[in-house]
Amino acid sequence: MHDLLKQILEEVHPLIGQGTVAQYIPALARVAPDQLGIAVYGIDGQLFSAGEANMPFSIQSISKVFSLCQAIQHSGEDIWQRLGHEPSGQAFNSLVQLEFEKGRPRNPFINAGALVICDINESRFAAPTLSMRDFVRRLSGNPQIVADRVVAESEYQHRARNAAMAYLMQSFGNFHNDVETVLRSYFSHCALSMSCVDLAKAFCFLANDGFCKHSGEQVLSARQTQQVNSIMATSGLYDEAGNFAYRVGLPGKSGVGGGIVAVVPGQYTICVWSPELNAAGNSLAGMKALELLSERIGWSVF
Ligand code: GLU
User: Fold this and answer.
1) Of these residues, 49, 61, 188, 235, which one is catalytic?
2) Does residue 198 lie in a domain region?
3) Position 302 in a domain
4) Do the Cβ atoms of 67 and 74 come closer than 8 Å?
5) Whole-number Å distance between alpha carbons of 141 and 197
6) Which residues line ligand 1 (CB under 6 A)?
7) What single string gives the DSSP state of each residue in 162-173?
8) Would residue 177 be called left, alpha or beta, if left means φ above 0 and alpha means ψ between -120 and 50 degrees?
9) Is residue 38 part of a domain?
10) Predicted model pTM
11) What percent of the chain has pLDDT over 90?
């Protein structure tokens, strides 16, 4: 596995230079573009990695999976009264559909849906930012994980679209807490800095019927785990979930920091990172690396 990962990184390396680092969050636009890392973590605890697998990066939308799991843990099925689990077919930060559909977001992985989830968690946790930080520390077994305050502040300063979505949902009665407070929590989750190794470990419960080995905690039930994986498979890669299913064939979640996490149910989790994105906002080299890995090992769930 180790040799295979090294070889795949060599194969995808020429793609670096052909994508663009996320520009709309100034603190992210400054990230060095020529970085590439991958980690594969087995439910038996085996870890394989290559490249810059220990370099922390901004997890961005990958945090939406953690927020959703916290909401399911603490608020259960009730959350689906506030949002759906259908693909949106729209950009992750689109306002159009939200207006048509009366402030009820299609799924928890577009920004509007993630903001509703953060609103739900805001009502449940005394300190949502700390609860999230501690949650990812437990899941990854890494007590050093922190949110990058510069990135979080940069996002807050450029919050116009996310704020517009939250206020629109508030106008439809689908937002219960102070918008600015929830935005702060949301950006702090997005700004968590984690490495490929951290993320592969933190996602492992999703490959293991909801059980996290590091913390010894049953994070979700086996059924809830299947449900989260199904939403990742249909909505986890922005407006490119179909292409990801076709090329990689695994539940996955990406972020504009260039990370992509994928789950091989019952076996492994994989995290790949390369900051340059394709037109859909997914890591260009990361997508290719996952495609090669899944194809060579025969991991597609389809
Ligand atoms: N913090 C980013 C935003 O809200 C997340 C984007 C992403 O990774 O999709 O725009």
Assistant:
1) 61
2) yes
3) no
4) no
5) 10
6) 60-61, 92-93, 111, 155, 162, 190, 255-256
7) HHHHHHHHHHTT
8) beta
9) yes
10) 0.97
11) 94
